[in-house]
Amino acid sequence: MKTEYTLSKHRFYELKHFCLQYPDWKKLYSLSDGWPKEISKGEGDTTSRDGIKRGDLRRNIELVEECARLVGNDILRFVTDDSLAMPSDRMYDYRRFFWELSRRR
User: Which of 8, 23, 49, 77 has CA 20 to 30 A from 83's CA?
Assistant: First the structure.
């Protein structure tokens, strides 16, 4: 069934896998004692590299959260956790979330 919120199968999967990284982004972003060594290893200016990485994480987190706010915050748990099944009465909101995300990303 085509609606105004229809995406191609591959675009949907791309966005779905993008959202499944959300818990990892939140965890990395909230580290209070700095980055794990495997993230900030290398030569050069690690402070600016870490700042850029934090900025990228923050932008991704805000993008997913902003789209969830537009549709309804409770949808966030369904799009960021693959083990939860979307209730059939919320499929319109589910499609709308991914359409909004596609438009903004």
Answer: 8
